[in-house]
Specification:
Elements (H helix, E strand, L loop, with lengths): L9 E3 L3 H10 L5 E6 L4 H17 L3 E5 L4 H11 L7 E6 L2 E7 L5 H18 L1
Parallel strand pairs: 1-3, 2-3
Antiparallel strand pairs: 2-4, 4-5
InterPro entries: BrxC, Thioredoxin-like_sf
Pfam families: BrxC
Protein name: Bacillithiol system redox-active protein YtxJ
Length: 126
Amino acid sequence: MRPEVPDLSLTPLTDEAGLEAALAHSYREPILLFKHSRWCGISHRVREDVLRVAAARSVPLYEVVVQTARPVSDAIARRLGIRHETPQAFVIYQGQVVFHASHYAITPDALNETLDQLDRACSSDG
């Protein structure tokens, strides 16, 4: 069941052009990138948390379903230099990975802490 997420900006990534657009977007604001398997219980539970954080924080969320977009998943591993896992979450800002976790290390607290740190850094810059 999908949680209520009325303010969620969710963009499915299905090709490498979409990945490049997501990375370009990260130069304007932090983004969340989430890779998962539709058939994995861990992925399902973690996805609910990621959706809630993205909606609560109004952070753009880009999502890769590995079964239907494996080439994109492989491109993420190559482009970001981080080995493929699933589920896997990234916070990306200015083209750089500022947070990465997989499986049960993907928590609302970890995502929120990273986004809070970025908020503080951005507000002290400007």
